[in-house]
Amino acid sequence: MVSKKKLYEILENPLAQQIILDILEDNIEGLDVLSTLMELGEATDDEIARQLNMKLNTVRKILYKLYDARLVDYTREKEEDINWYTYTWKPTLDKLPWIVKKRGQELLKKLREQLAVEENSMFFYCPRCEIKYIFEEAMDCGFRCPHCGGALKEYDNSRDIELLKNQIKFIEEELKSSIFHIPTTSVTSKGRRRSRRRVKGVKT
Ligand SMILES: [Zn+2]
Fold first, then answer.
1. Is residue 193 domain-resident?
2. Key word Coiled coil present in the record (predicted)?
3. Is residue 80 in some structural domain?
């Protein structure tokens, strides 16, 4: 079990927040849903919607996204007389440190690949559309912007390279943080076997 104190510490971490927001497709209200659920321990979607004064439909969409990422779980109960199911949700954040690590590493891989492209290619851009093209693309369209037909100009990507390097460094540093170092045996869930096997597969 990851202690509640530690979970709150993780939720304050900028990389963890970035990754949770990514799971929520940048819906910042999702963070409120998650923290309300943490405060309450468990709640129905209706209770969360009332507490946050949010539309029930919005709350549900958020909960499904969190469920897909295995950050919440639910139990459902049939209401006998109305033939209706009530869903009670609870946070399952024990896997959060592992999820942040895994997604953080995936993000790192993507950014490093992007950096390699930036460092090894020439770029052109359309000043009017503010779109950047890699050399081959620019050549294919005769150095004319495919959107507006304007002449493409050579593009200095040193600033993009610098930004990518900074992002990479930021994620590398955050991933070193001790709050994400959880022994794999602490990962427990419904699909116990499956998640444990997946944990073993993660390079550390
Ligand atoms: Zn253009």
1. no
2. no
3. yes
